[in-house]
Automatic annotation (TrEMBL):
Superkingdom of the organism of origin: Eukaryota
Organism: Paraglomus occultum
Protein name: 4808_t:CDS:1
Length: 341
């Protein structure tokens, strides 16, 4: 059971604001006494270890407050990003003294959560479970019903032409198993509506250092190269349409503008970005990647590998292909990919 969160972003510890129980790191019972309750608590902790996934909108939190309950035993602990239980407080609710301490701990954890939310705040706050309706406004925008859940995004498209429904459906079907590209777990056409369930859920890509940028570009270019091989371009590649999740970076087709090669780009607004790319081509996506790099030039301006990378991107744009750049020294695979390799 997850009860609250905290962070150290501001450089302040919780103890500066809330006095936690002094026995936080010690059990109130003899550790040699093993009961059925202990076994149940252990199983609850193992279950949390297996199933818990870090909230994507709280990426800076070093730990969450976890509660494991078994029989008369309740254990409060910090559960870290490395999935370690630390500073445990174990209480036996058959004891009057421990019942009082349990109430004190719960009150302090409530204050803890309130302080963390005020000082840190979610970034950004996702209204999990809330459904948002967007009405169609022009020829480029169709109606959508969006629900962001903890682990996936549910989208229902309505008021769409049958050709548009088929285009979006085909994009996700054709490019379903490409690493670092948003994936559709569900992709169903029902009458004039399209139902999608998309993963992963993450935070918008916002590089703060060179290493982060290098890993992100590795992910983006390898995803795009596969999409291009399948005969598609994503078209609308901008930082708001890229996300971070568990140390990897993903491209999402947030506006559903992806198009097969040699077809007209159907958004008049998107045509203005690269006036040389009237049709959907790999060069169009490469141009947008170059623009993304220019937005964060202060991060890589003096790095020789980055400068070479930008030159190679220019060559790729002229060749209409990313094939020659995938082994560029500037690109760094995410840790997950390095382990596989």
């Amino acid at each position: 059971m997850l009860l609250g969160w905290t962070a150290k972003r501001t450089g302040k510890n919780l103890e500066h604001h809330v006095q936690m129980p002094k026995a936080l790191s010690a059990s109130s019972r003899d550790s040699s006494q093993v009961t059925i309750s202990d076994t149940e608590v252990g199983e609850a902790k193992r279950d949390m270890y297996r199933k818990f996934d870090w909230p994507p909108h709280y990426r800076n939190l070093p730990y969450v407050i976890a509660i494991a309950i078994g029989g008369d035993t309740i254990v409060f602990s910090k559960f870290t990003r490395a999935k370690l239980f630390i500073d445990e407080l174990s209480l036996n609710l058959s004891s009057v003294k421990d019942r009082i301490r349990c109430v004190q701990a719960a009150i302090n954890i409530g204050r803890y959560c309130k302080w963390a939310f005020k000082e840190v705040g979610p970034e950004p706050f996702y209204p999990f479970g809330k459904t948002i309706d967007r009405q169609p406004t022009d020829s480029d925008v169709w109606g959508t019903r969006l629900t962001i859940n903890y682990s996936s995004v549910l989208k229902v498209f309505y008021s769409m032409k049958s050709s548009e429904i088929q285009r979006v459906h085909n994009f996700y079907a054709t490019n379903r198993d490409i690493p670092f590209l948003e994936k559709a777990l569900r992709n169903e056409i029902k009458g004039n509506n399209l139902h999608l369930e998309l993963i992963p859920v993450g935070l918008p890509f916002s590089p703060t250092n060179l290493a982060t940028l290098q890993v992100a570009m590795y992910c983006f270019l390898h995803a795009l190269a596969k999409v291009h091989q399948n005969g598609w371009s994503v078209i609308d590649i901008r930082r708001p349409n890229t996300i971070e999740h568990d140390g990897c970076y993903y491209i999402i087709d947030a506006g559903e503008f992806a198009q097969q090669h040699n077809y007209q780009i159907h958004s008049e607004i998107l045509k203005r970005f690269d006036t040389n790319s009237v049709l959907s081509r790999p060069a169009r996506d490469i141009y947008m990647v170059k623009e993304m790099m220019k937005e964060v030039e202060e991060i890589w301006r003096y790095n020789p590998h980055a400068i070479d990378f930008m030159r190679e991107l220019d060559e790729c744009y002229q060749k209409d292909s990313l094939e020659s750049i995938l082994k560029c020294e500037f690109l760094i695979a995410p840790a997950e990919q390095r382990i596989k390799d």
